[in-house]
């Protein structure tokens, strides 16, 4: 005699009860999710679909004809040396600038752990994040103009040979990278530190007793145990870095058009959206740039999440 | 309460709300005139104006005074929103969706675009309208070149209130002889720069981080060598780069760069550092807009007398003067267009137009208003101009993508000295051909 492995069918009444429960859950879901779904549809989905459609057209905005051009805006971007430069600049900012930002974050995590007044130091590093770009632009103008503070200091300490036109088109992008690192490092330090602050102090005491250097303590204790907050910070940086805009305008000023050497993809999108000084909007191209930035950012975020995902370290 | 009952109740409430809102809206928009008079009284009209100026700027203060006097005179209120320079994008969207204001700022640089979109009312009738109090018509207060600068192909598009141009700025207290006898030719100008340089002075100042200002030199050279439309033509057909006047103009810019006439590290100078230094008498000349005198008025060194002369002439060249008119436009879809046009006639009074000269330091559009002394030579040139062009030869207005992606970067490269005049022309040809093929 063999036993049947077929599960016993649920009774009709219990199946109805399950369905009723499911219906109940669905109804509650609909009631609570509906406002969010409607809101997201109106403010996100519809504009996004509209942007994709506009990116396939040549359109200067209300009052002008819309011409369907298919993928021509994308082909044009691909062939545009200006856009390629802007995208390359963006990638340099994201990866080189990003490496510098997280180097600052990690060095500060190592340095601040044993420092008195670490909280105050963290606040100081965070301050640039809350300064308005206009103020940053004014300060940078004062410091980096040919007759500004930096060249004056170099002259005062007999290093006039290092004098530079720091804001000239061929040099300004390097200043923008440094300015960005200076202005946002505190923000990412604050995020990563939320994880690092949870690490029990006795782990470091044990590491000290075992003779681990500060560097080894960072690699073997701090980084693994704050991996989640670091991953979040990296993803946030990828998203934010790909949209870098304000800091470029802060360096160049609002009076002029940023030189090609300093443009990012977002700046190029801004120029297409507004038409630049005296110009008219080119919304098709601006939308195509927006889609390109979004697509590339999505790829980076997905890759980053895959690369950075690992099992959570649990302390027993 | 069951879900169905709740849904029904919500439906009733929403419907009632919608009906109430519609009735209220009708009450606002279409309420009957209790007097039975078809024509709206002045008190029923409120004009709306979106300004490109910010609170505290002289133009904002001028408008405030004008609007207050107009309301006192007619009872018509003017609802103003000072939105600053970012108004343009919002304005186009609002005008396109029928929610735009009755009045807005416009000028030569965007009249063609706004007209093409059907957003600006034709103001030809305003020219024949009497200016209240002053006698005479609005048309009689404006020079023909200014009316042309404020018009689209279909007629007047704005009430011009002030005009801008560009010229070479200098301190008349330091160079009194230039007031009577400015350098007439390019060769004279270069000789003057050489003389200053030999004396250890800095002949030219430039805020090199502003590509629009860097462009002034090539633009003016083109307007002399190729005449109006020659710069705009470079973005229309790559072959136009092969015209002799393009290379000749680029060589003039290269001559300035190679001559070392600009201040040290001029390409790294962030606006407004160079014009502040000029006002402090550190540089002899700056080629800039007619607005620079007003912008630096409070920074000028003691005894400084700002003045201008027009860009020097070249052999067989064109006496082109760039004239950009700015002023107030009326929304083509405005329901208050009659009141808005009446307001413009009121604004055309000499009393108000004079404020653009005395308070803002501009050349007022009104012919009877005296220009600021610094702009006398430019104003004379404009009044006598037979050959005029608009802002940047209207190139950015007609071809914005090419302007920001090809022309501006190439001009910056030429102006910085990183490419020669010949390379400028060759790259201009190549990049324009590629741009036009892809766009």
Automatic annotation (TrEMBL), chain B:
<dbReference type="InterPro" id="IPR006059">
    <property type="entry name" value="SBP"/>
</dbReference>
<keyword id="KW-0732">Signal</keyword>
<feature type="signal peptide">
    <location>
        <begin position="1"/>
        <end position="24"/>
    </location>
</feature>
<comment type="similarity">
    <text>Belongs to the bacterial solute-binding protein 1 family.</text>
</comment>
<protein>
    <submittedName>
        <fullName>Carbohydrate ABC transporter substrate-binding protein</fullName>
    </submittedName>
</protein>
<keyword id="KW-0813">Transport</keyword>
<dbReference type="Pfam" id="PF01547">
    <property type="entry name" value="SBP_bac_1"/>
</dbReference>
């Amino acid at each position: 005699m063999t036993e049947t492995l077929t599960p016993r069918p649920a009774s009709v009444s219990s199946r109805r009860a399950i369905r009723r429960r499911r219906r109940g859950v669905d109804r509650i879901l609909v009631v609570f999710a509906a406002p969010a779904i409607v809101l997201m549809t109106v403010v996100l989905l519809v504009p996004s679909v509209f942007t994709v459609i506009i990116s396939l057209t040549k359109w200067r905005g209300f009052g002008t004809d819309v011409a369907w051009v298919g993928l021509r805006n994308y082909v044009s971007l691909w062939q545009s040396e200006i856009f390629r430069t802007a995208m390359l600049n963006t990638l340099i900012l994201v990866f080189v600038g990003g490496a510098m930002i997280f180097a600052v974050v990690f060095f500060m995590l190592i340095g601040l752990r044993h420092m008195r007044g670490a909280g105050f130091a963290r606040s100081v590093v965070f301050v640039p994040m809350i300064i308005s770009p206009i103020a940053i632009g004014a300060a940078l103008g004062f410091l980096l103009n040919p007759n500004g503070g930096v060249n004056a200091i170099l002259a005062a300490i007999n290093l006039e040979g290092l004098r530079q036109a720091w804001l000239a088109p061929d040099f300004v992008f390097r200043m923008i990278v440094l300015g960005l690192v200076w202005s946002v490092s505190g923000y990412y330090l604050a995020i990563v530190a939320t994880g690092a602050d949870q690490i029990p102090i006795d782990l470091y005491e044990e590491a000290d007793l075992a003779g681990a250097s500060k560097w080894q303590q960072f690699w073997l204790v701090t980084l693994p145990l704050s991996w989640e907050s670091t991953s979040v910070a990296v993803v946030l940086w990828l998203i934010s870095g790909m949209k870098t805009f304000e800091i470029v305008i802060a360096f160049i000023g609002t009076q002029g058009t940023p030189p090609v050497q300093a443009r990012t993809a977002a700046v190029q999108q801004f120029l297409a959206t507004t038409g630049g000084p005296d110009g008219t909007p080119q919304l098709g191209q601006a939308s195509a740039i927006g889609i390109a930035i979004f697509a590339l950012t999505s790829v980076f975020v997905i890759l980053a999440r895959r690369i950075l995902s690992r099992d959570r370290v649990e302390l027993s | 309460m069951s879900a169905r009952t709740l849904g029904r109740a919500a439906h009733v409430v929403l419907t009632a709300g919608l009906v109430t809102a519609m009735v209220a809206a009708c009450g606002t928009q279409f309420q009957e005139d209790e007097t039975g008079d078809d024509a709206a009284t002045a008190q029923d009209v409120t004009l709306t104006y979106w300004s490109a100026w910010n609170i505290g700027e002289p133009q904002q203060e001028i408008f405030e005074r004008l609007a207050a006097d107009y309301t006192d005179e007619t009872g018509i209120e003017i609802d103003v929103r000072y939105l600053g320079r970012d108004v343009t994008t919002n304005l186009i969207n609002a005008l396109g969706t029928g929610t735009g204001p009755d009045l807005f700022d416009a000028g030569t640089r965007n009249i063609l675009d706004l007209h093409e979109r059907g957003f600006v009312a034709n103001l030809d009738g305003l020219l024949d309208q009497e200016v209240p109090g002053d006698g005479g018509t609005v048309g009689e207060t404006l020079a023909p070149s200014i009316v042309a600068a404020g018009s689209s192909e279909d007629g007047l598009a704005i009430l011009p209130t002030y005009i801008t141009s560009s010229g070479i700025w200098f301190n008349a207290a330091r160079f009194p002889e230039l007031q009577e006898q400015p350098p007439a030719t390019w060769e004279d100008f270069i000789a003057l720069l050489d003389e200053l340089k030999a004396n250890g002075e800095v002949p030219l100042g430039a805020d090199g981080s502003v590509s629009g200002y860097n462009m002034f030199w090539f633009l003016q050279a083109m307007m002399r060598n190729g005449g109006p439309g020659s710069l705009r033509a470079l973005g229309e057909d790559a072959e136009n780069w092969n015209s002799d006047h393009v290379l000749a103009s680029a060589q003039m810019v290269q001559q300035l760069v190679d001559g070392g006439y600009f201040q040290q590290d001029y390409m790294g100078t962030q606006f407004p550092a160079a014009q502040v230094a000029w006002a402090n008498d550190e540089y002899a000349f700056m080629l800039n807009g007619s607005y620079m005198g007003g912008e630096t008025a409070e920074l000028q060194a003691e005894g400084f007398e700002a003045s201008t002369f027009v860009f020097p002439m070249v052999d067989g060249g064109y006496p082109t003067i760039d004239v950009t008119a700015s002023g107030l436009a009326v929304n083509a879809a405005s329901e208050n267009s009659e009141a808005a046009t009446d307001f413009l006639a009121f604004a055309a009074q000499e009393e108000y137009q004079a404020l653009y000269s005395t308070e803002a330091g501009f050349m007022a559009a009104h012919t009877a208003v005296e220009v600021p002394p610094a702009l006398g030579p430019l104003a004379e040139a404009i009044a006598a101009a037979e050959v005029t062009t608009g802002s940047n030869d209207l190139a950015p207005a007609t071809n914005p993508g090419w302007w920001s992606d090809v022309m501006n970067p190439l001009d910056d490269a030429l102006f910085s000295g990183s490419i020669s005049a010949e390379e400028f022309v060759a790259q201009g040809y190549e990049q324009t051909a590629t741009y036009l093929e892809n766009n």
